[in-house]
Amino acid sequence: MYNTSKPQFKVPPHVPPHLVMDFQEEKDPGFATDPFGVLRRLAENAPPLLYTPEHWRCVGTGCWVVTSDEYAREVLQNPDPFCNTIRFSRDQAQWTRRLLPLESDPPEHMKYRAALAPLFSPKAIDAIERDVYRVANEHLDKIAKSGHTDFMHTFARVFPGTIFMMMMGMPLEMKDQFFYWEEKVFHGGTFEEKQQVAKDIVSFMTDLIQEKRRKPGEDIITSLTKAKVDGRPITDDEVYDICNTLYFAGLDTVNAAQGHIWRYLAEHPEAQAELRANPPLVRDAIEELLRVHSVNGSSRVLKRDYDFHGVQMKAGERVWINPELTGWDPKVYPDPFKVDFHRSATPHLAFGGGPHRCAGSHLARRELRIGLSEWLRRIPEWRIEPGATPTYFTDGVLSLRNLPLVWDGSKAI
Amino acid sequence: MAKINYIEFDGTEHVQDVKPGLSVMEGAVKNDVPGIEADCGGAGSCGTCHVYLDEAWLGKIGEKSAIEEAMLDFAENVEFNSRLSCQIKITEAMDGLIVRVPERQC
């Protein structure tokens, strides 16, 4: 695995040579059309802990990669030494602020998490469930009878985005602007374009927070402005930093997850049939599909030297967790590459673990469940358009660029 | 050691000897008691270690912190005797503690 002919590989002397592996999935030429295939090949050869001299998540240095479920849980559940307060991702280079609560460690972390959690609790999501159904159906109304669509553009990216705008109290008239920003920030063009969009978002959000203080509504931003941190009122900066996290954590992820789920069902009509025959199975099907097609990993940085199961790690080194790989851990999931909606429920790491475990998981699950149930109800068996090749983005969250689907429009309702 | 009785939703009882200092959640997870998922590993961040404290023990094991209150919002079917089991540290005085496991964690 270690290609000694590449001169740029620099491996620190304390890293055991047998753990060194070139782990750069996005550089594999097959990644744009079959990223899970590429990851699977890497998974089959990867030890539970490895060191890659290059990784797109690290600027100018290598990093550790954890691939087993057991090791991943250990890293996620131990903010000391695996912390979030040291800047790690190249994507975040354009932000001079920090994302909250993401870039904080306990005990500070919980103070922000406690302000955020009730806004995304199962009860809070129950309260908007009717809206989720309504928005899903509004988007389906536009495409059902036509018998074809590019799922990523007409549903996957706009359905959760609309819900997000509603929950945040953003005016729906700015939908187009909002989706333009989203496209640019997550999978946009140049670094400069992303920087400009980042500035525009900062400006917009700052104004919006001020407006919610002046004219409170029934939305997340208003609730955040009223929160207390450590007994004192939250500052505008903190509200802003939390909103930023919601934006980055909450949109592209669920967009991406839909793509993988709908694609799997498009390519496995027997699985679609099983769900049509047994609608309550949708809930378990989504968990199983999140297990095998996770979209977003976690990074941590060592805040001190540490002996991890006999391996020396040094302060400042980065650790990357790939939930795609942990979801395929055969020690936890026998026959791991097989998709089985009836697998006994074992918590997967698609939503992370430890103190930073996804606060939006209930919303994500509800959107996926309702989106999929409504598709199954209204759209007959869908397939990938013959001759079309869905492709994936090669940076950011693991997501399809396009997913052209076809079905018999005359049978849609 | 403290004997903790974890009662599953279907009534199955699991009486475990748990070392004081561990949480009620750890006592379950380390002994393969089903129904307590503890996704976040005990950080009070996910609400999936939700249990119902037997009423006989109410007021005898210390109150919820404000943060546990906030995190309980993450659980389903929360009742007056709901607790996050990762936030209850076991002591010798809890010998005989009974908790009921919900039908499912969210």
Kindly describe this structure.
The complex is a heterodimer of chains A (413) and B (106). Chain A is an alpha+beta fold and 413 residues long. Chain A has one domain (17-411): Cytochrome p450 (Orthogonal Bundle). Helices cover 44% and strands 9% of the residues of chain A. Chain A has helices at residues 35-45, 69-76, 108-116, 122-143, 151-156, 158-168, 175-187, 191-214, 220-225, 236-250, 252-267, 269-277, 282-292, 323-326, 361-378; strands at residues 49-52, 63-66, 82-83, 148-150, 228-229, 232-233, 298-302, 306-308, 311-313, 318-321, 383-384, 404-406. Chain A has a five-stranded mixed beta sheet with strand order 1-2-10-7-3. In chain A, strands 4-12-11 form a three-stranded antiparallel beta sheet. Chain A has a two-stranded antiparallel sheet with strand order 5-6. Chain A is globular and about 65 Å long. By secondary structure, chain B is an alpha+beta fold. Chain B has one domain (2-100): Beta-grasp domain (Ubiquitin-like (UB roll)). Chain B is 13% helix and 22% strand. Chain B contains two helices and five strands; from the N terminus they run ββαβαββ. In chain B, strands 2-1-5-3-4 form a five-stranded mixed beta sheet. Chain B starts with a strand and ends in a 6-residue tail after the last strand. The mean pLDDT of chain B is 92. At the A-B interface, helix 3 and helix 4 of A face helix 2 of B.
**Main sheet of chain A?**
5 strands, mixed
Radius of gyration of chain A equals: 21 Å
Shape by Cα distribution of chain B: globular
CATH architecture of chain B: Roll
Total domain count of chain B:
1
Structural class per helix/strand content of chain B? alpha+beta
| Number of helical elements of chain A | 15
Query: How many domains in all of chain A?
Result: 1
User: What's the rounded overall pLDDT mean of chain A?
Assistant: 90
Low-confidence stretches of chain A: none
The assigned structural class of chain A equals: alpha+beta
Question: What's the CATH topology label of chain A?
Answer: Cytochrome p450
Cα distance, first to last residue of chain B?
Answer: 31 Å
Strands of the widest sheet of chain A, in order across it, are: 1-2-10-7-3
How do the strands of the widest beta sheet of chain B line up side by side? 2-1-5-3-4
The amount of helix of chain A comes to: 40-55%
Largest sheet of chain B: 5 strands, mixed
Name of the level-1 CATH class of chain B: Alpha Beta
